[in-house]
Design a protein that fits this description.
This protein has 307 residues and is mainly alpha-helical. It is 73% helix and 0% strand. It is flat. The two termini are 53 Å apart.
Length: 307
Amino acid sequence: MTRGPLIQAQEDFSDLAYSLRRPRALFSWVMSVLTGAMTFAALVPLFSVLYLLITRGGKTLGLATFRELPPAALAPGGGFGNAIVGTVVMVAIAALLSVPFGILAAIFTSEFGPDTRTAQAVEFCAKVLTGLPSILAGVFAYAAVVVVTGGFSAPAGGIALGILMLPTVLLTAEEAIKRVPPKMREAAIGMGATPTQVVTRVVLPTALPGVATGVMLAVARAAGETAPLLFTALFSDYWISRTSPEFLPKTLGDLMKPTASLAVLIYNFSGSPFDNQIDLAWAAALVLVAIVLIVNVAGRALARRSG
């Protein structure tokens, strides 16, 4: 009675073996090799840039570069401490403007009015802003803030960066909120929670890792922007407060002046004919890349946790 199964077990399955002589197996192998080669070719420019930044920027980098002001032509030493502070201040202003509006808009488009024309218009505008050239955000902030206030300032730069951050925050927050399981909303409603309580106590805490990911990605983009700041904050060789021991702004008047940033310092010094300023530009580029890389890695880590 067991003879039939034994005969079937002894059948030849050699036709199913993997062999490069078969067209489909050969095509799969060729495409795998080609994909790996293209990936390696794409990584070569990245690692070459990192190598140049580390070798040329690392030799100038030191504690003094984080504490001192940009040097004059042919002057020894110097640093870009004011540019780091200016970058942090303007990105913080941009985050204060874009994050609340972005999250509130995401809540409306995903929870309270997902099928309304207003929500559709908001989503369309956000997607259009994602492809907006950064220089146009600078031109808008120049016309809306610099011309009105009569001078370049940190708030003008923060507004320009906030415009660029807003669509990233909005779209990522909206996607994170939509990924919250409907059963959690239904359970909260079944216990008598109001729509506001459902959003504030159930939806937002659950979607927080995804929202934080979008905020970090937006911050990373804003920190590396140069064109908007040329029209809004310009540059300065001094601390925001104009005094070295007290480099943080203390009054609104401190902010309403031209403000240094890492991106603009790199832009200005990279074209300088003086070696000391060129070396400082390499060091500033290394610091800026490190900041953007750390923020991006943190954002990816939060994205994995939220997934």
